[in-house]
């Protein structure tokens, strides 16, 4: 199955009909362009009394099976990574040997990718092409422009993919944050200019399509987090996503304001902060102390940021709750603040973790229980989706990055705001954008691969994934 010069196709192999492991293909004039290559993690299974999770032998890291494009890799013009979240970049070290194409990424994303590739001894084999916001690159028959949007990580980009028969706007993950604190912002004119040029189809994030209103700005979290830290008497541990460099800046400022020293617990947090420094995105005023020193400080002077907000095994917060972290031992009177919301499917693991913390006498503050915001989503709520459709005015809306409910609601929003046609499908469906809009169901085989014992293995079908 090869597109000819009259065809413009979209073919998702991962991330459509689910949240995670994004892998998208665009086809035109005999070639394919891949956008994103991410991982997912198995839905937490039965929790034992000791808090461990039983996955019934599933590989702990999973990704979309790229067999369709791996079998056609001579037609693969390149891979674009829109941003550095695991569900968009995490599978590159595992799958690149099957693809062997150039990889395009922004400065911060490229820094994260290099660190991942180095772990697999691939750093000097993969051609990484660093792009800046606003750049245009010709990649096979696709002319691609990187456009500034905001998200919960530095340097996210939307894409305008131009061909001689039609243009596609690919949003990536985004929100409209007028005060993102770190990295570039966005301009309304960027998107209204696209409308004047003409957008054939808009492929867009659906994660929060069921959420009314507008997402909270990162800048709005300072008050709530400062209040929570001030109210704490002992040590304070904040659990958040390590990729949110803006959140780390906010917490570092709060550390200075409350007389606490901030340290990072967890390899992903340390890697992300290091990448931010290398990419010039770390404020020199935000000093961190070595995590091994945290245990020697008076309790009221400790502000630690830890991985594990989703209750994941082997993360820093899980080890703190179990009492076996090498740097800090929690005591009654300490406080843990969850500056994150549960990803669907993780609720049970998080509740078990919170129960273990409370059993230690630790006070727990969650984003759901806080009166003022202490967490901001990185995805657009309904008002933001409405604004983007009004600005871009595409002929076709293609919701992705969500489960069925999210994508159906997204399609309704698009049609309500003037989009003539919405196509809702799932992984393996072929979205025909040109010459005649339509869909062919399950044209490409899909599935999952897992990384287990140093090799890729098929993940058996029939297991309940989210």
TrEMBL record:
<dbReference type="Pfam" id="PF07521">
    <property type="entry name" value="RMMBL"/>
</dbReference>
<protein>
    <submittedName>
        <fullName>MBL fold metallo-hydrolase</fullName>
    </submittedName>
</protein>
<keyword id="KW-0694">RNA-binding</keyword>
<dbReference type="GO" id="GO:0003723">
    <property type="term" value="F:RNA binding"/>
</dbReference>
<keyword id="KW-0378">Hydrolase</keyword>
<dbReference type="InterPro" id="IPR055132">
    <property type="entry name" value="RNase_J_b_CASP"/>
</dbReference>
<dbReference type="InterPro" id="IPR042173">
    <property type="entry name" value="RNase_J_2"/>
</dbReference>
<keyword id="KW-0540">Nuclease</keyword>
<keyword id="KW-0862">Zinc</keyword>
<dbReference type="GO" id="GO:0004527">
    <property type="term" value="F:exonuclease activity"/>
</dbReference>
<dbReference type="Pfam" id="PF22505">
    <property type="entry name" value="RNase_J_b_CASP"/>
</dbReference>
<keyword id="KW-0269">Exonuclease</keyword>
<dbReference type="InterPro" id="IPR036866">
    <property type="entry name" value="RibonucZ/Hydroxyglut_hydro"/>
</dbReference>
<dbReference type="Pfam" id="PF00753">
    <property type="entry name" value="Lactamase_B"/>
</dbReference>
<feature type="domain" description="Metallo-beta-lactamase">
    <location>
        <begin position="20"/>
        <end position="214"/>
    </location>
</feature>
<dbReference type="GO" id="GO:0046872">
    <property type="term" value="F:metal ion binding"/>
</dbReference>
<dbReference type="InterPro" id="IPR001279">
    <property type="entry name" value="Metallo-B-lactamas"/>
</dbReference>
<dbReference type="InterPro" id="IPR011108">
    <property type="entry name" value="RMMBL"/>
</dbReference>
<keyword id="KW-0479">Metal-binding</keyword>
């Amino acid at each position: 199955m090869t597109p000819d010069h009259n065809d413009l196709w979209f073919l998702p192999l991962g991330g459509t009909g689910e949240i995670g492991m994004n892998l998208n293909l665009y086809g035109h004039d005999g070639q394919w362009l891949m956008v994103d290559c991410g991982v997912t993690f198995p839905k937490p299974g039965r929790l034992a009394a000791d808090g461990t999770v039983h996955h019934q032998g599933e590989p702990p890291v999973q990704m979309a099976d790229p067999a369709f494009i791996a079998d056609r890799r001579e037609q693969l013009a390149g891979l674009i990574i829109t941003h550095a979240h695991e569900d968009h970049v995490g599978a590159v070290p595992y799958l690149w040997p099957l693809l062997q194409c150039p990889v395009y990424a922004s400065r911060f994303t490229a820094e994260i990718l290099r660190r991942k590739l180095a772990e697999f001894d691939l750093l000097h084999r993969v051609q990484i092409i660093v792009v800046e916001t606003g750049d245009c690159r010709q990649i096979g028959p696709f002319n691609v422009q990187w456009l500034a949007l905001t998200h919960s990580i530095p340097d996210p980009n939307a894409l305008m993919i131009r061909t001689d028969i039609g243009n596609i706007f690919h949003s990536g993950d985004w929100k409209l944050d007028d005060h993102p604190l770190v990295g570039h912002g966005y301009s309304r004119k960027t998107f209204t200019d696209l409308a004047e040029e003409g957008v054939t189809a808009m492929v867009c994030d659906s994660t929060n399509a069921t959420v009314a209103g507008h997402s909270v700005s990162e800048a709005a979290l300072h008050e709530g987090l400062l209040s929570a830290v001030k109210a704490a008497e002992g040590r304070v541990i904040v659990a958040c996503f390590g990729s949110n460099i803006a959140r780390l800046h906010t917490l570092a400022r709060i550390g200075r304001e409350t007389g606490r020293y901030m340290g990072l617990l967890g390899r992903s947090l340390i890697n992300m902060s290091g990448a931010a420094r290398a990419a010039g995105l770390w404020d020199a005023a935000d000093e961190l102390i070595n995590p091994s020193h945290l245990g020697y400080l008076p309790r009221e002077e400790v502000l630690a940021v830890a991985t594990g907000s989703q209750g994941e095994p082997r993360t820093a917060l899980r080890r703190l709750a179990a009492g076996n972290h090498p740097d800090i031992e929690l005591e009654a009177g300490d406080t843990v603040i969850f500056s994150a919301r549960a990803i669907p499917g993780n609720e049970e693991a998080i509740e078990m973790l919170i129960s273990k913390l409370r059993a230690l006498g630790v006070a727990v503050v969650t984003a759901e229980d806080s009166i003022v915001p202490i967490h901001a989503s990185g995805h657009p709520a309904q008002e933001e989706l409405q604004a983007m459709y009004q600005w871009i005015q595409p002929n076709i809306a293609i919701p992705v990055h969500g489960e069925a409910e999210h994508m159906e609601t997204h399609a309704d929003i698009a049609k309500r705001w003037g989009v003539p046609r919405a196509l809702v499908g799932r992984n393996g469906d072929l979205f025909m954008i040109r010459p005649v809009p339509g869909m062919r169901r399950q044209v490409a085989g899909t599935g999952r691969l897992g990384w287990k014992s140093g090799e890729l293995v098929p993940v058996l079908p029939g297991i309940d994934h989210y």
